């Protein structure tokens, strides 16, 4: 796919993650890695020593040098505190609503440090429709998941708090799309955040 279409969206995503990234993380866990391309790029470009990517289905590119692993979607196959940070990149809106807090809590179990989330934010029904169409355009070529439910800003705050996190940084929306495409799918639909654990 990237041989015929420049990965402009993916490059912008990495820049957005870089804007909220803090410090050096020895081991980074990428949850819901898909093809693994973003995790591989983070291993090469971000200040981290090791990246491990997990997903429900093995769609990982065969050329990756990072470690990849399938898991059951419920319990991450790692001991408590194995990682120093984690990422969820355009994943959480595909997770059933009732399972989202549990997923974040499970990530908190195996990760001692921050959680970086790149996802979408909806302001209402029109944004939901835009995001549904945009997800279909982006995921169908890669065999990605199409079912999704999107959160508002307040719902993101609530989810973080319910899961033992607080949102400590939000990236300024970058230019994922230009021209008419940006009018149809505003760049404000894209959000990138750093979440940190709430101290007990």
From TrEMBL:
A Gene Ontology BP annotation from the UniProt entry: methylation
Pfam families named among the record's database cross-references: Methyltransf_11
Methyltransferase type domain boundaries: 29-111
A GO term, aspect molecular function: S-adenosylmethionine-dependent methyltransferase activity
Protein keywords: Methyltransferase, Transferase
InterPro entries: Methyltransf_11, SAM-dependent_MTases_sf
Record-listed E.C. numbers: 2.1.-.-
Keyword Transferase set for record: yes
Presence of the UniProt keyword Methyltransferase in the record: yes
Residues in coiled coil: none
Top-level lineage group: Bacteria
Name the record gives this protein: Class I SAM-dependent methyltransferase
